[in-house]
Design brief:
The protein is α+β, with helices and mostly antiparallel strands and 76 residues long. It is built from three helices and two strands, in the order H-E-E-H-H.
Length: 76
């Protein structure tokens, strides 16, 4: 486990150095609209968006009334 964590840290440092040298450039154009950002910013936004979606789905699963009914039936 320690070796995997160490490898992940080394890989992240190498990626950070590469992104500092050349941050990349993303341009998405659709019709009259354009979206410009760096690769790093896009990756961070995507990771944040995935985390938010996972949190919302977890909350919806926790608040699901059908789950409450099935758990009450099993206990009875």
């Amino acid at each position: 486990m320690f070796i995997l964590i160490l490898l992940a840290l080394v890989a992240s440092v190498l990626l950070a150095v590469q992104l500092a040298r050349d941050p990349g450039y993303i341009l998405v154009a659709y019709g009259n609209y354009t979206f410009e950002t760096s690769l790093f910013a896009l990756l961070m936004v995507l990771l944040l968006l995935l985390a938010i979606i996972k949190l919302v789905l977890s909350l919806l699963g926790w608040l699901n009334p059908f789950r409450w009914r099935s758990s009450k039936r099993v206990k009875s």
